[in-house]
Amino acid sequence: MSVKSFLLNLRDNQNVRKFGTKVINIAKVSESPKGFAAIAGAGVISLLLFNIGSQDTHQITSLEITEETNASIENTGNDSDSEADTKLLSEAVIEEPTVTEQTLALRRNETLLDLLVKRENIDRQNAHNAINAISNVADLRKLRPSQQIRLLKRSTQQDQIDSLKLRISFDEEATVRFEDNQYISSTETIDTVSVTHLVQGEISDSLYLSAKRAGASDKIIIDLIRLMSFDVDFQRDVRSGDRFSIYYTRSYAPEFNDVREDEILSASLTLRGNQLDAIAYTSKDGETGYYDTAGKSTQKALMKTPVEGARLSSRFGRRKHPILGYTRLHKGLDFAAPRGTPIMAAGNGTIEMATRNGSFGNYIRIRHGNSYKTAYAHLKSYARGIKKGAKVKQGQIIGYIGTTGRSTGPHLHYEVLLAGKQVNPQSLKLPTARTLEGRDLEDFQKRYQTLVAEIEQIEYFAEIGTQNQVTANNAQSLITTQ
Known about the structure:
Elements: H1 3-12, H2 14-29, H3 33-51, H4 57-74, H5 79-92, E1 99-105, H6 112-119, H7 124-134, E2 148-154, E3 163-169, E4 172-179, E5 182-189, E6 193-202, H8 207-214, H9 218-228, E7 243-253, E8 258-271, E9 274-282, E10 288-291, E11 311-314, E12 317-320, E13 327-330, E14 333-336, E15 342-344, E16 349-356, E17 362-367, E18 372-382, E19 391-392, E20 397-401, E21 411-418, E22 421-423, H10 438-481
């Protein structure tokens, strides 16, 4: 076979075509310069495979016809032998059963058994056996409407399942196959590609809404808020005109053409000209954390606000009590939010109290290191596993906002205690969790410069793309006017 023929056969191969499609889809979700380089190389190969030989198609076809004609001429005069050979071959050919694959979606109030038996006419006992087998590796109670099921059947046995696959997580699929007269189940890893994405913008109303409009997912926005909550009071510190930037990783599943948002690599908030940075780095001892540009951890002993999206309704200090009617010292902060809003542990620690506590209603107190404690009052309920003696981590959900005890509406009363005395959480200066030194600091600075270079390249190409689009729009406008 000539090189040209080999390439033409390769071009028509379905697997090669699928590879080309995956390359195009990955390019759509990746903004990493390194990713672009790898994708570009693969893309050139794909284009060559799909286009090579297109100019000589007519010649190749003619050659094939000529060879076929010559073979026909050579066989002239042997019609009887040819007919006998043809008959013999046709009797010897055994038709191979074909396997067809369907992607089906569960309907509302439909079970997996209903889908197989009623919609796909699978033998009921056969369907039962397959479902029993796959239940060993998949929790079928978690199946929901629109869950996709990939079903393979043989053309000779339409009432039997050849194999069945269902996705149980973003990167894992449960499979059951019919082998040796029985169904065998297993789990398979779904191929994924790690890509990156950059979201930037100006805050016009709230960080959440502005980042959402810019294309950030809820997960990434929440991660950003948690990351910056040690230094930023999102109720008081954020103003219209402030800016944000989030550079993060994604996992792309080409087979399913969907994306999972993963981890933030670098984030910044520019609040009234003051830029706060958080850069991900894994130290030599394997600990991953976020640091500012000087290598100081962005994580503090306690979070500034333990509730996301809440309004600060009352500050620390003397005030007229809304129920008792007289002025007294308010020894904490009140955060107003809808009933059921999650409350996070402000820092790592041990639960000292998780019970009803007089006018505080449902109450939690956590003991942290360095003589610090935090208290949370008026809760609607406690999170699972929250009880006296339980260990909690910073950012862990411990309860939900309510209005139990002496309260005029749903809110969280939050206190910080130092050596047993309530102190103002907003004026408290807390030490950072860690500062990088030596080799770790050198490696971190290199890592930071790499991320800055990647972001600058993405911004540059985005600007070029915008300029090209503006030029194209202007040219179209000119043509329309003329």
